[in-house]
Amino acid sequence: MPELPEVETVKNGLAPVMEGYVFDRVQLNRADLRFPFGDDFISRVQGQKLERLSRRAKFMMAELSSGDRLFMHLGMSGKFTIDPAAFEKHDHVIFEMSSGNRVVYNDTRRFGFMELIKPGEPSRLDHLGPEPLSNELSAPVLRAALKGKKNKIKAALLDQRIIAGLGNIYVCEALYRAKLSPTRASGKLTVADTELLVRHIKDVISDAIKAGGSSLKDFANTDGELGYFQHSFDVYGRENEPCNICETSIHRIVQTGRSTFYCKACQR
Ligand SMILES: [Zn+2]
Question: For the residues 189-216, what does the mean pLDDT come to?
Answer without folding.
Answer: 89
